[in-house]
Amino acid sequence: MVWTHWKERLFIERIERRSKLIDELLSQFKNDWEAVCFVLLAKNFGLNVNGASFLEVAKAIPFHVIRKNWDEVGKLEALFMGMSGMLIPSYNDLYHEELGATYFYLKSKYQLQTTEGVGMQYSRLRPLNFPTIRWAQFAQFYASTQGLFSRFIQKENQFKTDWLADVRVSDYWKTHYVFGKSSASKNKGISKAFQELLLINTVIPLKFAYEKHIGNDPSELIFDWAQQLKPEKNSIVSGFEKLKVGATSALDSQSLIQLKTTYCDLKKCLNCSIGYTLLTTAQKHE
């Protein structure tokens, strides 16, 4: 019982922490939920390694620019990669040069301010997670669907991610992972595991924040959603599995990540319900 209640509390703590970022973005984008959804999705397409950089790039692009160009994949690729510092001459091939020309046209047209100090990391990443590929997927993602926030928060669509399986990359990126270096052709679509990560890291926090924003208590709904999603696979979850603490849902895995990063790593055992229970029980038996 202690573990069950503590696990739920950990999960809510993690969602509330993400809600703080959503509140900050709502203030910055004047309560435009679609704009906030765009920025959060960009962050999560960057994964842990490039998430912060993807976030800064997305925040630097006024959302009205995305609205005016979101059905043109080439322009979106140029915006995302140009603002990430990937389209600076000299160019590695013709497509690189074409994107560069498109980006500098858009930058001038919309008076965009390039983000300073944003660096994209390639080390420790599989090629499918290179920032070039993730930006290319993100461009296709936005070009294929409008009104993503509205689609995500509708309860009847909460777990329907089949449409994401149709998101691929443009022809150039089917045979490239980086500019100027060709590779074997591959569609490079969004995997099922990545689709579920988007649900866990973007859709659930957005739904939680939105329901609170309109005066509802979303806790039970969010618990229900998270319990129906598969757990993430990462080093933290694997570490707990070695200790015989398994994860059967996203609620479990998110709780374990929160426990490890916020309590175990900081040695806050007395602030942890499990740690406190174990220590006080041990004292009673001394």
Task: Please sum up the structure shown.
The chain has 286 residues and is mostly helical.
Question: Total number of helical segments?
Answer: 14
> Any low-confidence stretches, pLDDT <50, length ≥5?
none
Largest sheet: 2 strands, antiparallel
Could you tell me the strand content as a percent range?
Answer: under 5%
Total of domains: 2
Mean pLDDT: 91
Order of helices and strands: HHHHHHHHHEEHHHHH
The general outline is elongated
Alpha-carbon Rg, integer: 21 Å
Q: Please state the structural category.
A: mainly alpha
Measure the end-to-end span: 24 Å
Q: What is the count of β-strands?
A: 2
Helix content: 55-70%
Question: Taking strands numbered 1, 2, ... along the chain, how are they ordered across the largest sheet?
Answer: 1-2
Layout: helices, strands, pairs:
Blueprint: H1 2-28, H2 33-45, H3 47-60, H4 63-69, H5 73-83, H6 94-110, H7 131-144, H8 148-153, H9 171-174, E1 176-178, E2 181-182, H10 192-213, H11 219-228, H12 235-242, H13 250-264, H14 273-284
Antiparallel strand pairs: 1-2
Helix pairs in contact: 1-10, 1-13, 2-3, 2-10, 5-6, 5-7, 10-11
Task: Provide structural commentary.
The protein has 286 residues and is mainly alpha-helical. It has two domains: 1-28 and 219-286, no CATH class; 32-190, no CATH class. It contains 14 helices and two strands. β1 (176-178) and β2 form a beta hairpin. It is elongated, with a radius of gyration of 21 Å.
